[in-house]
Fold:
Amino acid sequence: MELTPYLTPESLAVGLTRAAATCAGLVFTSLGGQFLAVTDERVTGRDLGPSTFPDAAAAEVKAGASWLHGQTPADERPRVMRAVAEAYFTRLGRPVHGHGLPDFLSGEFGLSEVKAHFAPDGTLSDATTGMMWTPH
Structure:
């Protein structure tokens, strides 16, 4: 992946590495100028992976978008921020609903849903939880 078009390629590389380690069920950390993906057999992947609890999922979607926001060029922001939310829900195996685009998309969690809300410039501005198909 060519990183030179991004405002801060080094920060983007760290964000992508952190996301890859998390998706693999590892813990990402750094020590000085070295970056490490740490695993401990005593800790299960369930403890490290994406959360299936709606409130935690909403916080994690916002955190993921926050890491990439500053490194994403403005003209790419709508596509990238939507991809962050959709990839998170897809990784969990949750149905994704795009009926609210461009304002929001949602991930289904049983009778609950997590809505990722987008600003007019494409920024992921909030993630909320509530009952499916209801305002929140």
